[in-house]
Design brief:
elongated
């Protein structure tokens, strides 16, 4: 038996045109081109999200346990080196490097493995500052980064003492940010605009009104045809209820492609009858479709930048098998580091261990210096400036900084 759904195309398929149809106009081609782009982008976002979630699961299974084990071994090795250093006759230069390496091993481990009271006492003996001071300094640095960001991007002078390391504090901070952003927008709106700015604003408002009217008109026309209250057949009424849910959701989300497909199906009966659309209506639809293409491209890019996927973002463009190979390669490196550090920790108490300890300290210290120099170079690189052009982008950066603050202040 035929149903309402028999002629309804799946949302993942684009609008189609009969091969017997005459050549499409440029606007009609643009219409189908942008519709196809939207379907492609939606599918790509879906696949990318699944890809990133899969990689996150792999890292949680393969990398996280090994990182935790490495952190435990780093603390063990730091203590073994410290105890051994007091037994051997190290020069002042050797002892200075040894202190730096011991402290760095602890700082690498503590964010992953919560330090015990004994671990903190050990750290305090070797570090230039006690652990609480170091942790507070890290928190204050994150707050200063956030304060500078707010000042540079929004011209806001924020009291960072209002931002504590708890979710409730961050929600309050977000509310304050919303209020500040609203103040800025109000001030901008009240500024005297040039004639050019006023004309551009008028055009934008007119275009937005046309878009909303078009969405509304499609929604109303579909509701008239598919409203379940107008259907006497119980089975068809149930199917129309489901369709109306789809229509309403698409309208509320301003999902033009879904509404267009339904309109083509039920108002024009077939997608190939696109020639019944006026050029004026096509212009409106094409503009809306272009906007949605841009939004979806932005969504795809922001998906890769989402802090949730910060560990796997570098693999987003790789196949799952290749990314898995890279992850397993990273696991092997962690395992090698764990084995080497554990071997060093085991020989540290032995009388002949001084040479190997000094060699390890020198190599580790040199790597620390190189890393710090590279980090400073990247920080001052003029080509790496961030540009937060919207409140959404700024809030994403705030969340990343807040996550860092919370992690450092555990």
């Amino acid at each position: 038996m035929n149903t309402l759904f028999d002629n309804f195309e799946d949302n993942n398929k684009g609008l189609t045109v009969s091969k017997s149809k005459q050549s499409l106009s440029k606007k009609q081609k643009d219409f189908f081109k942008h519709t196809a782009s939207i379907e492609t982008l939606k599918e790509k976002i879906k696949k990318t999200e699944h890809h990133l979630n899969s990689l996150e699961g792999i890292i949680a299974q393969e990398i996280d346990p090994e990182l935790k084990n490495l952190s435990i071994i780093e603390i063990k090795t730091a203590k073994a080196i410290g105890n051994s250093a007091r037994m051997h006759n190290f020069t002042h230069a050797q002892m200075d490097k040894t202190k730096a390496v011991i402290v760095e091993l602890c700082r690498q481990a503590f964010p992953i493995v919560e330090p015990s009271a004994e671990d903190i006492l050990f750290y305090n003996k070797w570090a230039p500052e006690n652990y609480d001071t170091y942790r507070d300094d890290q928190l204050n640095q994150s707050k200063q980064q956030l304060s500078d960001l707010m000042q540079d991007e929004l011209g806001m002078d924020i009291n960072m003492e209002d931002l504590k390391d708890d979710p409730e504090s961050f929600l309050r901070f977000q509310q304050m940010l919303d209020e500040k952003m609203q103040e800025i927008e109000t001030k901008k709106a009240n500024r005297k605009k040039s004639k050019k700015q006023l004309n551009a604003e008028a055009k934008r408002k007119a275009a937005e009104e046309i878009k909303n009217k078009s969405l509304r008109s499609i929604y109303v026309s579909l509701a008239k045809i598919l409203h379940p209250d107008l259907e006497e057949n119980e089975k068809l009424r149930a199917e129309k209820e489901e369709l109306m849910k789809t229509i309403t959701s698409a309208y509320e989300a301003k999902d033009l492609p879904t509404l267009l497909k339904l309109e083509m199906q039920w108002v024009y009966k077939e997608a190939e009858n696109i020639d019944q659309l006026s050029d004026e209506k096509l212009d409106v639809f094409i503009t809306m479709l272009k906007d949605q293409v841009k939004e979806l491209k932005d969504d795809l890019e922001m998906l890769k930048l989402n802090p949730k996927y910060h560990r796997v973002a570098m693999f987003s463009g790789l196949s799952t098998s290749f990314a898995l190979g890279e992850i397993m390669h990273e696991k092997e490196k962690i395992l090698r580091n764990s084995t080497e550090l554990n071997s060093l920790a085991e020989i540290c108490p032995k009388p002949h261990a001084k040479k190997k300890i000094v060699q390890f300290v020198n190599e580790y210290y040199d790597e620390m210096i190189q890393f710090d120099e590279q980090d400073d170079f990247d920080f001052y690189d003029d080509d790496s400036e961030d540009d937060f052009s919207s409140k959404e982008e700024l809030e994403k950066e705030l969340k990343k900084l807040f996550k860092s603050m919370t992690k450092k202040n555990k």
